[in-house]
Amino acid sequence: SSVLSFTGHPSWKFLDWKPTTKYDSAILHTYFMQEMFVRGILVANTHNISLAHSPKDVNKIVNAYKEFLQSLSKALTDENLEAHLKVAPLKPLFKVR
Prior knowledge:
This protein is of the alpha+beta class. The protein has three helices and three strands. α1 packs across α2 (55-78).
């Protein structure tokens, strides 16, 4: 809960990444997307569940989250998250003037 919280309707959850003392939220979000893509889950910063998802799909998603959260926890504990990134961290497209 100190790094990630969920908001929104149960069928349409927003992932709210919170910066740590070492990592900003963009790095956490980038790592999340990277790891979910590797596991075959297309996700940005929301997670939408619908009746189109079969029980097999739901199990795949749940397992992907479990694997990701375990790897994130280890990387945060070891303080080596950057070493796990295979891409440059996301950068905001829009800025407040």
